[in-house]
Request: fold
Amino acid sequence: MLPILYPSQTLSSFTAPWRRGYRLIVSVLLASGLASCGNLDQYDITLNDRTLYTPRASFEDYYLPDIALSNCVTQAIEDGQVFAAGGLEVLNCSEAGIESLSGLSRFTGLKRLKLTDNNIRNLVELSKLTQLEELRLEGNNIVDIVPLTILPSLNLVSIDDNPALQCHSLARFRAEVRVIAPEHCSS
Reply:
């Protein structure tokens, strides 16, 4: 049994085994208290003005001139706790009012990208996303899909509901790529 520590006493007035016992109890209480708290990854943890843990900051080193795209990417980074540009693998920015994809090529780890029902015309920025496996671009204003035909990992591209799309470029996709094309391209 451990002795009671009164305010007039200090921990150093006890023998070494008792000090170790108090340290053990304090450590166990502290650890169990921290374990019962959720979402500690967003707080600094300090003890006696000494920082024990500081969470990593989310990735913020990027610039996307299109405000709608920037807002969507920022939310995805926060939700997915992304700490580097290559860490963002999935992005869904459907119905966001996006017009430009400028700057998106910074996110080289993207594997699945959904940009349906926006106002996107130019796809050149996507040609740098070599890990992209699935791309959904339905309901945009895309004319030329040639930049997508060079993507080595692409398995699926959906470009339905793009009335101005030039269909002759569809033949440039690798045979393994599943292409969901607009109706006017199937005639």
